[in-house]
Amino acid sequence: MDRIITPIIVKLGGSVITIKEKPFTPNLSVINRLAREIKRADRKSLIIIHGGGSYGHPLAREYNIIEGLKDQRQLIGFSKTRQAMMVLNKMIVDSLIQQNIPTISVQPSAFILTDQGRISEMNISFIERMLRINLIPLLYGDAVLDEKIGFSILSGDQIASNIAIKFKVNQIIICVDVDGLFNEDPKKNPKANIIEEIELDALKNLMNNLSRARTTDVTGGMFGKIVELIPAVESGIKVKIINAKKVNRLYKALKNEKVKGTEIKQR
Amino acid sequence: MDRIITPIIVKLGGSVITIKEKPFTPNLSVINRLAREIKRADRKSLIIIHGGGSYGHPLAREYNIIEGLKDQRQLIGFSKTRQAMMVLNKMIVDSLIQQNIPTISVQPSAFILTDQGRISEMNISFIERMLRINLIPLLYGDAVLDEKIGFSILSGDQIASNIAIKFKVNQIIICVDVDGLFNEDPKKNPKANIIEEIELDALKNLMNNLSRARTTDVTGGMFGKIVELIPAVESGIKVKIINAKKVNRLYKALKNEKVKGTEIKQR
Description:
Chain A is α/β, with parallel strands linked by helices.
């Protein structure tokens, strides 16, 4: 088969596409605007991944899916968690189809296996074939099968990082509801400044200090997210964190235009 | 891994779960009743597959998906066809979850590849893992990737037959909207009798005569369906065709009770 055009990866955070505080509530105006920005940017090779936000998390928590299968009563919770993700996913696909973007959902639990929550098997050949014929694959955080603990939760961030590495992409755009990483906790100090660029070593130091201190989180609550993305940065992929609740930031990032946010690179 | 309990396969025809004549119209009362029958039958190891009916077919036809990718304008049709199947699938899953059946959809296009419409790659290990932890996998006819023609349509019947062979199941239950196969065309002769049992050789003769004659179809329009199922019968699997629009027939078939219908067996 011919080589594919190297895709760019866009991760739409659950905090962007849903109303975090209200279970099972989409942020439809943001979803539709982002679909328009993606259309307008007109990238030929793109993989989109979305998070669970207020759809996946409440049920996953209620049935403790992340801890694995301990009790048969969790099984229906696994079904319900997946089904909630499908409801959210449907809205994203509808919105992208509305913009005439030939989107194809790819169910992570149908082809990604984890080992205690970490991806252990993932056949990317279907995604590659989709890209080859100009379909836009759309993945999402999902309740998946786990070879050790029966099942678990796989975050969209872990999927993004892994797929990025496998496809040797140049860039991952992480869409969240804050402007990026800050030099101080922006919730405590409104004068905190955004970190426009940070190299891997500096980021790792920052993370080490954070995990020691555990008092303030200058990542704006994105500690877990960044931990997932570090392997991608280590393999040379540029990660750009932007606030996609603000108009045109995703568009600009997709067009490689200057945009407010934090860029993480290897060096 | 331990051996799994051999599953039974139930195929819910599109003509049963949707209103055939009305595009995008589910037959919700039938869907809900079948979910209750499945619950009541309480089979421990089960794989359910559903067809597209009035959801998948109109869009697949409009964009000529079955013929493969010939024109970039078909791409959005591929997206729309898949999305229509997701809408139908959601209703089936909702109905099964309502009955406390821990159902897990498994997206065929995420793990099954075809070669000019015939399954050429299918990793069943995820379905096997689901069965192992007592989840009920639910597949469906889908618009899938094709290694030769870009994409195609994969029928639920072809999936049922292939999965049945791979899992060496004992039985496939095919749910349609007619009582079974008849000795004459039931639409032309209301006194036509149902064939209660037929062996493979007799069935093949019947099919040969049919494809030569092309005038009457004593299969009740199920010629294509039976062609798909023959490889399963050849490998020793019993196929039972029942009318699932009639109350309790699926229940009885699942319980191995005597039920009106046609049983096809190797000999």
